[in-house]
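Thread title: Can someone regenerate the structure for this chain?

I was given the following input by a collaborator and told the matching structure tokens would be attached. They weren't. Posting the sequence so someone can regenerate them.
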Amino acid sequence: MFVPVFFIALVAAHLFDLLSFVAMTERLGMAAEANPVVVLIADSVGLLGLTIAKVASVVIGGSVFVLLARGPRRRLAIGVVLFGVGGGLLGGFSNLATIYAY
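Best answer:
Regenerated them for you:
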């Protein structure tokens, strides 16, 4: 139960970030994105490439979490997944704030 709940939270947070990013850039354009790394990836390889990069980051973060959670480092595992969830939520809420500001 421990691993699936946290992994689902990680995936949901990053899905929220991606969907809010798509909505924001459709309405306001790429100039509305605050993260220069996201802008660089999106400009270089498009939305599909950005989606692949986001999926890869979730898979890597989730894999690190699962490996740590199965060993004696459960607290570190929770820290890793909370960092990932926090990043996804921060991105998603930042995107929503930008949408509603304009």
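Helices lie at 2-28, 36-69, 74-101.
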